[in-house]
Amino acid sequence: MPWRTVEQNVGLSLELEHAARALRAERVAAMLELVGLTHVAKRYPRELSGGMKMRASIARALVSRPRILLLDEPFAALDEMTRDRMNEELLRLRAEQKWTVLFVTHSVAEAVFLSQRIVILGAHPGRITHDIAVDLPWPRTSTLRDSSAYEQAVTRISRLLRGAQHA
User: Fold this and answer.
1) Contact, 46 vs 8, CB < 8 A?
2) pTM value?
3) Contact predicate 32/7, CB 8 Å
4) What are the pLDDT digits (tens) for 95-132?
5) In 10 A of CB 53, how many CB atoms?
Protein backbone atom coordinates (compact mmCIF):
# COMPACT_ATOMS: atom_id res chain seq x y z
CA MET A 1 0.00 0.00 0.00
CA PRO A 2 1.67 3.19 -1.18
CA TRP A 3 0.61 5.25 1.87
CA ARG A 4 2.24 2.82 4.32
CA THR A 5 5.95 2.54 5.07
CA VAL A 6 7.87 -0.63 4.27
CA GLU A 7 7.64 -1.82 7.88
CA GLN A 8 3.90 -1.05 8.00
CA ASN A 9 3.36 -3.02 4.77
CA VAL A 10 5.42 -5.96 6.02
CA GLY A 11 3.46 -6.07 9.28
CA LEU A 12 0.02 -5.78 7.69
CA SER A 13 -0.97 -9.44 8.05
CA LEU A 14 0.01 -9.43 11.72
CA GLU A 15 -1.96 -6.24 12.21
CA LEU A 16 -5.02 -7.85 10.60
CA GLU A 17 -4.56 -10.86 12.90
CA HIS A 18 -4.59 -8.42 15.86
CA ALA A 19 -1.15 -9.57 16.96
CA ALA A 20 0.29 -7.64 19.87
CA ARG A 21 2.24 -4.53 18.86
CA ALA A 22 5.47 -5.82 20.45
CA LEU A 23 5.20 -9.14 18.58
CA ARG A 24 4.52 -7.30 15.32
CA ALA A 25 7.52 -5.04 15.80
CA GLU A 26 9.78 -8.00 16.63
CA ARG A 27 8.69 -10.12 13.66
CA VAL A 28 8.74 -7.22 11.19
CA ALA A 29 12.26 -6.26 12.31
CA ALA A 30 13.40 -9.87 11.95
CA MET A 31 11.94 -10.19 8.43
CA LEU A 32 13.39 -6.87 7.29
CA GLU A 33 16.79 -7.99 8.56
CA LEU A 34 16.36 -11.36 6.84
CA VAL A 35 15.73 -9.74 3.46
CA GLY A 36 18.28 -6.96 3.99
CA LEU A 37 15.87 -4.04 4.16
CA THR A 38 16.31 -2.76 7.72
CA HIS A 39 17.81 0.46 6.36
CA VAL A 40 14.63 1.30 4.40
CA ALA A 41 12.02 0.36 7.03
CA LYS A 42 10.68 3.93 7.29
CA ARG A 43 10.58 4.54 3.53
CA TYR A 44 7.56 4.25 1.26
CA PRO A 45 7.24 1.81 -1.66
CA ARG A 46 7.74 4.57 -4.24
CA GLU A 47 11.20 5.17 -2.78
CA LEU A 48 12.38 1.58 -3.38
CA SER A 49 14.00 -0.09 -6.36
CA GLY A 50 12.22 -3.00 -8.06
CA GLY A 51 14.41 -5.53 -6.26
CA MET A 52 13.76 -3.89 -2.90
CA LYS A 53 10.02 -3.97 -3.53
CA MET A 54 10.25 -7.70 -4.28
CA ARG A 55 12.21 -8.33 -1.09
CA ALA A 56 9.65 -6.30 0.89
CA SER A 57 6.89 -8.43 -0.64
CA ILE A 58 8.73 -11.59 0.38
CA ALA A 59 9.18 -10.22 3.91
CA ARG A 60 5.44 -9.45 4.03
CA ALA A 61 4.66 -13.01 2.98
CA LEU A 62 7.10 -14.53 5.48
CA VAL A 63 6.20 -12.46 8.54
CA SER A 64 3.28 -14.80 9.32
CA ARG A 65 5.67 -17.78 9.23
CA PRO A 66 4.03 -19.76 6.42
CA ARG A 67 5.02 -23.33 5.69
CA ILE A 68 4.17 -22.91 2.01
CA LEU A 69 4.86 -19.85 -0.11
CA LEU A 70 2.98 -19.35 -3.39
CA LEU A 71 4.74 -17.03 -5.84
CA ASP A 72 3.19 -16.22 -9.21
CA GLU A 73 5.87 -14.67 -11.44
CA PRO A 74 7.19 -12.41 -8.69
CA PHE A 75 10.29 -11.36 -10.63
CA ALA A 76 8.80 -11.03 -14.12
CA ALA A 77 8.99 -7.22 -14.20
CA LEU A 78 12.65 -7.09 -13.16
CA ASP A 79 15.67 -6.75 -15.42
CA GLU A 80 17.70 -9.93 -15.91
CA MET A 81 20.52 -9.07 -13.50
CA THR A 82 18.14 -8.09 -10.70
CA ARG A 83 16.03 -11.16 -11.40
CA ASP A 84 19.09 -13.42 -11.11
CA ARG A 85 20.03 -11.76 -7.79
CA MET A 86 16.47 -12.18 -6.52
CA ASN A 87 16.54 -15.87 -7.49
CA GLU A 88 19.70 -16.32 -5.44
CA GLU A 89 18.19 -14.35 -2.56
CA LEU A 90 15.05 -16.49 -2.63
CA LEU A 91 17.13 -19.66 -2.42
CA ARG A 92 19.12 -18.21 0.48
CA LEU A 93 15.95 -17.32 2.36
CA ARG A 94 14.40 -20.69 1.66
CA ALA A 95 17.50 -22.44 3.01
CA GLU A 96 17.27 -20.39 6.22
CA GLN A 97 13.52 -20.60 6.72
CA LYS A 98 12.82 -24.13 5.38
CA TRP A 99 9.49 -23.35 3.68
CA THR A 100 8.15 -24.98 0.55
CA VAL A 101 7.70 -22.77 -2.51
CA LEU A 102 5.32 -23.19 -5.42
CA PHE A 103 6.83 -20.82 -7.99
CA VAL A 104 5.07 -19.98 -11.25
CA THR A 105 7.28 -18.66 -14.03
CA HIS A 106 7.45 -18.52 -17.81
CA SER A 107 11.24 -18.44 -17.67
CA VAL A 108 12.74 -21.89 -18.22
CA ALA A 109 16.16 -20.73 -16.99
CA GLU A 110 14.60 -19.40 -13.79
CA ALA A 111 12.63 -22.61 -13.25
CA VAL A 112 15.74 -24.75 -13.67
CA PHE A 113 17.81 -22.55 -11.36
CA LEU A 114 15.23 -22.45 -8.55
CA SER A 115 13.64 -25.86 -8.68
CA GLN A 116 14.05 -29.34 -7.40
CA ARG A 117 11.08 -30.26 -9.55
CA ILE A 118 9.41 -28.64 -12.57
CA VAL A 119 5.81 -29.28 -13.54
CA ILE A 120 4.81 -28.28 -17.07
CA LEU A 121 1.17 -27.56 -17.75
CA GLY A 122 -0.35 -28.23 -21.16
CA ALA A 123 -2.68 -26.11 -23.24
CA HIS A 124 -6.38 -25.75 -22.54
CA PRO A 125 -7.68 -27.17 -20.33
CA GLY A 126 -4.66 -26.91 -18.04
CA ARG A 127 -3.22 -30.32 -17.26
CA ILE A 128 0.14 -31.66 -16.23
CA THR A 129 2.10 -32.85 -19.24
CA HIS A 130 5.49 -33.31 -17.57
CA ASP A 131 6.81 -33.64 -14.04
CA ILE A 132 10.61 -33.43 -14.10
CA ALA A 133 13.16 -33.73 -11.30
CA VAL A 134 15.94 -31.16 -11.61
CA ASP A 135 19.14 -33.01 -10.81
CA LEU A 136 21.58 -30.15 -10.25
CA PRO A 137 23.77 -29.63 -7.18
CA TRP A 138 22.80 -27.62 -4.10
CA PRO A 139 23.38 -25.00 -2.97
CA ARG A 140 22.69 -23.22 -6.24
CA THR A 141 24.92 -20.23 -6.92
CA SER A 142 25.49 -17.90 -9.84
CA THR A 143 28.31 -20.15 -11.09
CA LEU A 144 25.74 -22.86 -11.83
CA ARG A 145 24.38 -20.73 -14.68
CA ASP A 146 27.72 -21.11 -16.49
CA SER A 147 27.79 -24.90 -16.27
CA SER A 148 27.06 -27.29 -19.11
CA ALA A 149 24.74 -29.30 -16.84
CA TYR A 150 22.59 -26.21 -16.30
CA GLU A 151 22.55 -25.35 -20.01
CA GLN A 152 21.60 -28.95 -20.86
CA ALA A 153 18.76 -28.89 -18.32
CA VAL A 154 17.43 -25.60 -19.72
CA THR A 155 17.57 -27.00 -23.27
CA ARG A 156 15.82 -30.22 -22.23
CA ILE A 157 13.02 -28.41 -20.38
CA SER A 158 12.60 -25.93 -23.27
CA ARG A 159 12.10 -28.80 -25.70
CA LEU A 160 9.57 -30.44 -23.41
CA LEU A 161 7.76 -27.14 -23.02
CA ARG A 162 7.53 -26.58 -26.77
CA GLY A 163 6.03 -30.07 -27.09
CA ALA A 164 3.54 -29.38 -24.28
CA GLN A 165 2.26 -26.26 -26.05
CA HIS A 166 1.14 -28.45 -28.93
CA ALA A 167 -0.29 -31.21 -26.76
Assistant:
1) no
2) 0.79
3) yes
4) 888 889 999 999 999 999 999 999 988 777 778 888 99
5) 18
